[in-house]
Each structure stands twice: as structure tokens, then as C-alpha cells.
């Protein structure tokens, strides 16, 4: 669990890479520069920890590419104390970035192996989400709604209705939609029935799985 000057230096290089790809939000760049991504990966892969690429983790999932994490996080426009629902905890890397920004994070993971591992691991690093839940992300988390924003970290073949309904008015849902290739999509809730939709090009994610528990 070491975070050395070398790691910090590599993180700053990663921040520059992400910046050069178009991320401008200083708080997001600061979080990418702070979260020790190498600790979220198996120790054998340290050489890859600060490259801007996705990487396999347990349960056939991946730790997202840092640029993708930064891109989705920037779209959320996170403010301190924002109540955020994350669908797909995974390694906890995105969760940690949101915690670093001062958000109150509720995160759902449907792979038991990952859920157990990440639940123990995040607090060891000093990241304390409000709630980590083992369950079906398609349903969202009705009992804690509404949320300032919702982030989906897996490719969704369609937009789950419960997620839209659990947003505050003015709230933002960032979700990659599609089967093989996903279109990064932002929904902004205008009022009870009306949503504004924006699309931001192609990304690749592992699939969001439904009702597998």
C-alpha cells in the first residue's frame, strides 16, 4: 500500500495526458492527480497503472481508462456535498475520484467478488462512500433518491427508466449507451417529465448486466 514520489510523478504525467485530450476541469484533474490508481490494480501491473488505458480486474471487469473517468466526471459537474449514485463500483477507482471531489457517493456493484473486495479496500485508503450496495444497478437506489447526479460505469443497451426518475430536477445522468460500442450520453432533468439529452461520441465499456443476483 505504498504511494511513493515515483507514483506521484507518474500521476502528474497522467494528468498532463488527460489534459491534452481535452479535460479542463481543474478539480477533476486534481482528483486524477491524487487518487493512487496503482493501488486499485494487482501489483504485477504497476507499469500500466499510470498509462491512459483500461485494464482487466477481477470478475471479468475492468478498471476504466483514466481519460474516460475524467470525461464522465467532468460531465457530472460535481460540487462538494453533491449526492451521487454510481452504478458499477468495480475497482472503486471512479468512486475514489468522486469522494476526492467531496461528493456523497452511493455506489452499487452486482459482482459479489468485487463488492466484497472494494468495500474493504476503499476505507483503507481513506475513501468513505456513504453507502456501497450489492445489487442490481438497473433499479437504482429508490430509498436514497433523488440524486444530484448519477453515473453509470458500464455500457447500457438502453437507459434504465428508474435512473432517470431518481434524478433531482436539474440533476445529471451520465451513461454510455449501446451494445458493442457506446455513445456517452448526458441527460439533464428539466422537470418531472422533461429531459435534455446530449451525446459525446463513442466509448467502449464492459456491459451493464441486469438481474443476475
TrEMBL record:
Record's superkingdom? Bacteria
In its UniProt entry, the species of origin is given as Mariniflexile soesokkakense
A Pfam family cross-referenced in the UniProt record is PCMT
Task: Extract the PROSITE patterns matched here.
Answer: PCMT
Enumerate the PANTHER family for this protein. Answer: PROTEIN-L-ISOASPARTATE O-METHYLTRANSFERASE, PROTEIN-L-ISOASPARTATE(D-ASPARTATE) O-METHYLTRANSFERASE
* Enzyme Commission no: 2.1.1.77
What is this protein called in UniProt? Protein-L-isoaspartate O-methyltransferase
Query: According to the UniProt entry, where is the signal peptide?
Result: none
**What Gene3D superfamilies does its record include?**
Vaccinia Virus protein VP39 (3.40.50.150)
For the biological process aspect of GO, one term held by this record is:
methylation
Where does the UniProt annotation locate this protein? Cytoplasm
What function does this protein fulfil? Catalyzes the methyl esterification of L-isoaspartyl residues in peptides and proteins that result from spontaneous decomposition of normal L-aspartyl and L-asparaginyl residues. It plays a role in the repair and/or degradation of damaged proteins.
Which reaction does this chain catalyze? Answer: [protein]-L-isoaspartate + S-adenosyl-L-methionine = [protein]-L-isoaspartate alpha-methyl ester + S-adenosyl-L-homocysteine
Q: Which family does it belong to?
A: Belongs to the methyltransferase superfamily. L-isoaspartyl/D-aspartyl protein methyltransferase family.
Keywords of the record, alphabetical order, are:
Cytoplasm, Methyltransferase, S-adenosyl-L-methionine, Transferase
Which residues are responsible for catalysis?
64
Amino acid at each position: 500500500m505504498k504511494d511513493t514520489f515515483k507514483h506521484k510523478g507518474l500521476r502528474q504525467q497522467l494528468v498532463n495526458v488527460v489534459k491534452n485530450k481535452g479535460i479542463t476541469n481543474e478539480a477533476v484533474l486534481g482528483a486524477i492527480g491524487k487518487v493512487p490508481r496503482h493501488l486499485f490494480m494487482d501489483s504485477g501491473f504497476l507499469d500500466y497503472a499510470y498509462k491512459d488505458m483500461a485494464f482487466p480486474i477481477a470478475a471479468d471487469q475492468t478498471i476504466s481508462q483514466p481519460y474516460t473517468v475524467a470525461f464522465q466526471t467532468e460531465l457530472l459537474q460535481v460540487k462538494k456535498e453533491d449526492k451521487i449514485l454510481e452504478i458499477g463500483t468495480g475497482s472503486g477507482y471512479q468512486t475514489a475520484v468522486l469522494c476526492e471531489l467531496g461528493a456523497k457517493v452511493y455506489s452499487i456493484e452486482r459482482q459479489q467478488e468485487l463488492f466484497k473486495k472494494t468495500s474493504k479496500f476503499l476505507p483503507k485508503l481513506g475513501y468513505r462512500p456513504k453507502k456501497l450496495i450489492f445489487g442490481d444497478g438497473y433499479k437504482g437506489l429508490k430509498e436514497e433518491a433523488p440524486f444530484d447526479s448519477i453515473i453509470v460505469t458500464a455500457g447500457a443497451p438502453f437507459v434504465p427508466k428508474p435512473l432517470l426518475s431518481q434524478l433531482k430536477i436539474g440533476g445529471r445522468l451520465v451513461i454510455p449507451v449501446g451494445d458493442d460500442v457506446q455513445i456517452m450520453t448526458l441527460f439533464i432533468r428539466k422537470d418531472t417529465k422533461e429531459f435534455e439529452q446530449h451525446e459525446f461520441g463513442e466509448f467502449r465499456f464492459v456491459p451493464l448486466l441486469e438481474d443476475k443476483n
